[in-house]
Structures are given as C-alpha cells and as structure tokens.
Amino acid sequence: HFNFSQLLDLSCVSHMPYLVILDASHNEISDFFGFEPLKNLKEVDFSHNHMTKMKDLSAFSSLAKLNLDRILTEEYISGLEQCCGLTHLSLAHNKISRISSLDRLHITYLSLRGNKLERIEGLENLKSLQVLDLSLNQINSLCGLENLHLLGLINMEKNMSSTCIKSSEDERRTSTDLFFCISCDWTQEQPDYRLSIVFLLQHLTVLDQEKVTAEEKVSSINKYDPPLDVVAARDHMMHLVYEMMQPHVLYDSTLPSADSPYPMLVLTGPQCCGKRELAHRLCQEFCEYFAYGICHTTRGPYFGEENGTDYHFVTEEDFQNMIHMGKFIQTVQYGGHSYGLTRDAIEDVAKEGLACCVHMELEGVLSLKNSYFEPRYILLIPTQVEQYIGHLSSRGFYTPAQIDIAVSRIELYANTNRGRPGFFDNIIPCGTKSKPFVSQCFTMVWNYLFDINMNPNNTNTHIHTYSHRVNLHQMIYILMNMYTYT
Ligand SMILES: Nc1ncnc2c1ncn2[C@@H]1O[C@H](COP(=O)(O)OP(=O)(O)OP(=O)(O)O)[C@@H](O)[C@H]1O
C-alpha cells in the first residue's frame, strides 16, 4: 500500500507486480509515462493530481476501485469501458459535461460530484448502481435514472434551481411518465424537493446524506400517486369540513333512521358501460320506487343531453363555489372534468319518498362509502372488450386515448371486486354478442320485477305491506339478488 507525496511520475511502481492498492493521490503527477499496468492492481487512487492527459485505462482490467477526483483534465476517460471489474468509480470535481463509456460496467458506486453535467445520460444501463453522487452539477431532471432499481443512495445537493418537469393532464401515468410530469424545483429549500425525489426513486434509503424515512416514503406516494382510498378519504374529509363550516341544515329525509339507512342504489362501472342509461330506465319504469339523483359536472353537455335531467352542467368556478359551500357529498375528477353528487340532489328524491338511483365511477363509490349513506352498489362490468370498444367508438364522443383509459379501467373494477369481496353488492357482467349492454341488463331487471308485481301467486308480494323505506330496501334487495339467480 503506497502513499506518495510530491511524486511526479509513476514509473517506480511499474515493477511491483503484486501491488494491490495504489494510493497516488495528492501529488504532482501530470502524466502516466512509464507506468505499466499491474496485473493485480485492485484499487487505485489518482485523485488530486495535475494530469492533462490520462493513460488509456483499457489494460487495467483487474481494477475494482478507481478514484480520479480532481485530476483537472477533460479527456481522461479513455478505455474505462475495458475495466470490466470496476465497481467503484469516482470522477468528482473534474470538468465533465457528458457521461459516456460507462454503460457496460457493473458499477455499484459512482461519484460525479462537482462537474458540469446538465442532464443525466449514459447511466441507464448501470443496473447494479447502488450509490450515486451527482451533487454540485447543473442537473435539472432525474430523467435517466428511472430504471435503476438498486439505487439506494443518491446525492443531488446543490444542483440547478429550475422547474424541471411539466405537469401533465394525462391520467394514465406510468412510472416512467411520472419522471416527466412531477413539477419539482431542485432548490433544496423547496418543500417538495425531497418528496419528489423520494417518489421518483422509490428504492432510495439515503438522499443528500440524510436517511429517507418511512413517513417520507408514504407522504411522497400520497402526494404524487395517491391510492384511490387516500383520494376518497381526502375528498370525504374536504366535503365534511366545508359542510361543518356552513349553518346547520337538517336533511331529515335522508338521515338514517335508527333501524334503516336511507335507501339508495348506485350503479358503477367503467365509462359508458351502460350504467347511466340503466339508471334512467329504472327510474322511468319503476318511478314509484326510484328517482334519478342528478349530479353536477363541469363538462359541457353532449348532443341530446339536458341540463337538470342528465346532469346539472356548471362552470368550474360554480363547482368550486359549491364545494366551499359544503354542498357535495362526494366529488371526483374524471377525464379532466369535475363531477359531484350534492346532498340536495339526494334530498330532492328522498322528499318524494323515493329511493335515489345514481351512477358513478369507482372513485365516487370509495368516497361515498366514507359518508353516512349506505347505498347498495351494483357493478356493471363489460365482459367482451372488443364489443365494449366498439360501443365506445360508436358513440363518437371519445378520442382513442379516452377509449384506452375506459378499457384499462375494466381491470381496475375487476381487481377491486377480486381484492375486496363484498365491496360491490352485486355484479352484472354485461356484453353478450347479441344484445347491447343496457337492454340486456334492463330486460333482466324488468322481467323480474314485473313478475313479482303482476303474478298473484308470487309470494314476494308482501313487499307492499312493509313500511315505505322497507319497501324500497326490498326493491333494491331484489335487484341485487336476481342477478345471482339469472
Ligand atoms: N358524482 C359522480 N361521482 C363519480 N363519478 C361520476 C359522478 N357523476 C358521473 N360520474 C361518472 O363519470 C364518468 C364520466 O361521466 P360522463 O357522463 O362524462 O360519461 P359518459 O361518457 O356519458 O359515460 P356514462 O354513460 O358512463 O355516463 C361516468 O362513468 C360517470 O358515471
């Protein structure tokens, strides 16, 4: 183990074939002349020297650790790609503006601190990389690190302050896309600085020399890609708080009584699976039991839609005002628009002595499940994807991207049903080849109810003798169960 000082050349060590560790740091070495590669050399520290030209390193194939910090030269990485045993490489405080020729190495530790890097490139194939120091550069994006799954320690201190990544409207964010769509500022004073990096590099254990805590990991996920339950809990909490800030109003028709909650039916499933049409038809055909709960939306009406029938169409500003006035029970963002169900919409139906029937996406269901309402939930799930795509396309409203989102959400519903038994009270698989979704579902519902009401021999007629709420519950119960038998 040699340590020199004021050394000018390395010829003296060329004749030490068994040398394993060479520390030639902090000298005056400016060239490699006369230094022949040593077969057993494992660790070399050439840092803090004055080389203007680096020797071709291709002959140093046995090297495992190489320190080339502060050697003040620009073109020194030559033949590094041949050092296939290299695991630790330090190139700090040089003038590197581009990373190259490292991609075939199995490096686990890499320091590029204090260089002139503006972007991270050439590291994407360093799959074994565990520790990376990129501090003191001018980097403004983490793009290029997204596939380094073993990266546990990173130092990004003192990089350029600029907004690196623009936010995206696209809801289908893959983890790679997220590298582009999280808006973060690299100044460490920014509150989101750590969270955004911890989120993007989820295997990190140390960031900027500070341990990444479990709390930070959870907060970063909740911030940038929150699970649906978290979104729903926040939505519920927000509406609850705004409602509490308003003068107290007693919604007597929808308050749960001691023995039974207000009866409500929620049809859920991916966009355009037929739930809206089915809800309307149920409310028309069984108008003595159900009425449609009209949601609010900020999207514009499609051709043929009427304000106050399909939705209350409102501006984003009005929608926000309604949120602040504590009007909503739940709201969701879907396809870039806001949708929400107000307490008044349900109360209007309840005042007529009817059960409220609404349709909504899964996020709405999750939020509603946090409230004191206890609806029954029916999931309508397309079983034939091609037919479902055809159905979406034939409406002519949706872009291919919107169709892709709707189709991908079939899996979300199926997974929720698989993973949470009892989450949906019933499931209607829709989409046989011969009949469109809604007619098929409706015919099943209608025939069954018609049979109960009209057939004098039917023992189920006792539903009419119960109290009104119980009747309504019974009706919903029947709806739930008939699919189990058909
Ligand atoms: N209050 C709400 N909460 C959650 N989801 C809602 C709410 N109101 C509507 N939705 C859902 O938002 C999605 C988009 O609604 P929109 O009316 O724009 O869709 P659509 O293309 O007409 O499809 P659909 O026929 O399913 O309504 C639909 O799946 C709808 O059920």
Automatic annotation (TrEMBL):
Example of a GO cellular component annotation carried by this entry: cytosol
Residues of the Guanylate kinase-like domain: 262-450
GO molecular function annotations of the record: GMP kinase activity
Keywords annotated in UniProt: Signal, Transferase
Record-given protein name: Leucine-rich repeats and guanylate kinase domain containing
Native species: Sphaeramia orbicularis (orbiculate cardinalfish)
